[in-house]
Amino acid sequence: MAGAPDGGTVLSEKMLAARFAEVVLPHLGDALSLARWLTGNTADAEDVVQEACLKAHAGIAGFAGGNPRAWLLTIVRNASYTWMAKNRPRSVVAVGDLADLDDVSPPPDNDADSPEAALIAKANSAAVEAAIARLPQAFRETVVLRDINGLSYREIAAMLGVPQGTVMSRLARARGLLMTELGGRHEPA
Amino acid sequence: MSPHENRPREDGLPEDPQDMKLMIHALVDGELDAAAALAVERRMAADPDLAAEHARLVALRGAVASVPRPTVSDDFLARIAAIAEVKSPEQAEAPKAASARAEQQLQQQQGKVIEMRARASRWFNSFDWRQMAASIVLTAFLASGATQWLATADNGAESFAVAVANGHRRSLLAATPVDIVSSDRHTVKPWLDGRIGVSPPAPDMAKDGYALLGGRVEVIGDRPMPALVYRHHEHLITLVAAPRQNEAKSVPMADDLSAGGFLLVHWTDDAFSYWAISDAERPALDDFVARFRAAIIANPAAGSPG
Fold first, then answer.
1. Is ipTM > 0.95 here?
2. Other Cβ atoms closer than 10 A to B14
């Protein structure tokens, strides 16, 4: 048995626990969404998020305000890639590929009109899921962070460590691919 | 390719069609300020290609939004919540152990006295031991019970209401009822965000007779919570907004309560559990609550950060 408990330490531990409950717990759904899209399945996502939450708890004192969701998702993303590197080394995209991906492609031909938008809107969720799952990793995470997790361009850029313009072009490419697939248009070459 | 290439463009938007497309994405994503949004909308009105792209993007966003999210199972939530609680049993253990130790010493001293007084029967000694054990158990029970109460002070609405009332009373006695003085939610919300990482909607209701004075941080059940202070004639209204916990029960209809001589109204929405308290009359408080709720619904932007 050690000496009498230090009052200050106990208090700050409690504050940290309260902070964890405020900062982390409300965003578990978003954390699971992101981990699920990055790892590819729900069971792995729970493992990854649990791992991430352990890290979040260890680092909760370092959370300096701002958007708690973006903070947690940054940790979840890192945990996802650590997990992928360990468990599925082949599926991790090499960094070299990203530069190619970020080249802005020539605009796909835009002869389409409203019927295409209607097709996209009517796409069932299974088709949307499959289309998102088929996106290259860098595009997938950008579109998931924006359209599913609802982060801003600035938050995504900070998280990925890329310029905001890159976030915008990746988002546009990702959505272009999704629209092509869901709108029943031919793949632009 | 663009039909407007020969027209001079003074709207500050990119000439490059590819970059212009990014602006459409930014518009759909709510990333443009009002001036830029207006300029992009003007371009769209003049360019069917851009308008079609916009329609596709809006459709895509709807389609992606309809993808089911993974649900947070109770089991998983409990597992994660347990991460933060790892330390708590030890903390509960420490004072318990300390008091048990003190008890033991006391008992040992008493034991000596007893020893000197009469080296009586074994029966007496065993009785003494049982008494000691019982008192340790009792102390431990009280210590853990107290810890538990502190940790889950929001389990009973009543104890929460009392805590809210005490906070309100203290604020009336303090030099100033608020930590941040401002009638502007753009000042109050970031201040709260910066202090405790959460801020409730703070609509300005001065025209309804409820002026926003500012905000402060209340600590209830060892959790810091944002509180807004409004003035209505000579009365102050404190509005504590506790971020909703998953287990907290929903109170969509305003619930009239009272605690510590103050009137309270309690209700919840998707994000917060609200407690409005005042020494004003019940009709005034009810009117405040009704207007506050209407203001949030009418202007959800008041709830967004900033």
1. no
2. 12
Rg (C-alpha) for chain B, rounded Å, is 30
Reported residue count of chain A is 189
Chosen from B1, B79, B80 to mutate, greatest number of chain A CBs within 10 A: B80
- What percent of chain B has pLDDT above 70? 69
Instruction: Number of A to B CB contacts under 8 A, please give it.
Output: 158
Cα–Cα nearest to A63, from B115, B194, B30: B194
Spell out the domains of chain A, with CATH numbers in brackets. Answer: 9-91 (1.10.1740.10), 95-182 (1.10.10.10)
Q: What is the pLDDT of residues B180-229, one digit of tens each?
A: 777 777 788 888 888 888 888 888 888 888 888 888 888 887 788 899 99
Which SS3 state, helix, strand or coil, does residue A137 take? helix
Which among B79, B153, B272, B160 has a CA at the least distance from the CA of A18? Answer: B153
Tell me how far CA of residue A36 lies from CA of A48, A143, A146, B61, B304, in angstroms: 9, 14, 15, 19, 27
Is the same domain home to B145 and B190? no
Among A residues 60-89, those touching chain B with beta carbons less than 8 Å apart? 63, 65-68
SS3 of residue B227 by DSSP = strand
How far is it, in rounded angstroms, from Cα A55 to Cα A106? 42
Contacting residues for B244 by C-beta, under 8 A, at least 6 apart: B268, B270, B271, B272, B273
